[in-house]
Write a structure and sequence with these properties.
Length: about 240
């Protein structure tokens, strides 16, 4: 069975539409979201509205939290904080309540879903190294942990106290290993590839595929400019940084 795992949408509805269309075309039977529905981009209501009826479950991201908990803004740079404040005034009450009710972490279909890391999901730590992956998987009961947050997709294969890391787009997993997969960002890639992305997980074939897609990037940038958000938030989309 194929599952589409989305993360870090960041209010980029053009990227989200491309991802949703691809997930349907590729035969995904369900979708989940690893958080950061909002932040940076100019279409927060549109993104939440599109995703809510389609996803099976979701978890909270740090940019989602920032729109209802301003104390987190001190951890953001000036542009991210400006976007969070704008989003807080733009989101409908219904969508704000939806984000506020999201959990930090959920078990799902034999995997663990969390925005940042399983050990302390509300601390918003990043997972960049094999050592960090081993430590984080110690806190995860499931054989697979799916995370976002860094916007830098890759796969850690954990074997006991060691882990191997790859940025290969498609991984054929082994049932005797454990996996921490950093899912591509839908709406704001930072790995030098400006294309939208998501994870296609086949839990029967035990494969993990990082899917990347072209989308109407210029229109997303225009929306940011029209909303009066910092222009750098749009410009960085062109470079995937």
């Amino acid at each position: 069975m194929k599952h589409a795992v989305l993360s870090d949408v960041h209010a980029n509805v053009e990227a989200l539409d491309a991802v949703l269309a691809s997930a349907t075309e590729r035969g995904a039977e369900d979708l989940v979201c690893l958080g950061d529905f909002v932040g940076y981009g100019a279409s927060p209501n549109e993104c939440v509205e599109r995703l809510r009826p389609r996803i099976e479950t979701a978890v909270l991201g740090n940019h989602d939290q920032a729109v209802f908990d301003p104390s987190w803004l001190e951890n953001f740079n000036e542009e991210a904080a400006a976007a969070a404040r704008w989003t807080a005034t733009t989101l409908s009450h219904e969508h704000l309540d939806y984000l506020r009710a999201l959990p930090f972490s959920v078990p799902w279909r034999g995997a663990r879903l969390v925005h940042a890391s399983p050990a302390e999901p509300g601390a918003w730590n990043y997972v960049f190294t094999p050592h960090e992956a081993v430590v984080e998987m110690d806190a995860c009961e499931e054989p697979v942990c799916l995370v976002g947050h860094s916007h830098y997709p890759g796969t850690f294969e954990v074997n006991g106290r060691r882990a191997a890391y790859t940025r290969d787009a498609r991984i054929a997993g082994r049932r005797d290993r454990r996996y921490l997969v950093v899912v591509p960002s839908v709406g704001q890639p930072r790995d030098g590839d400006p294309r939208a992305g998501y994870l296609l997980w086949d839990d029967e074939a035990w494969t993990f595929e990082h899917v990347r897609l072209e989308y109407d990037l210029e229109r997303a940038i225009e929306r940011i400019e029209r909303a009066g958000l910092p222009s750098a938030l749009g410009e960085r989309l062109r470079w995937g940084e």
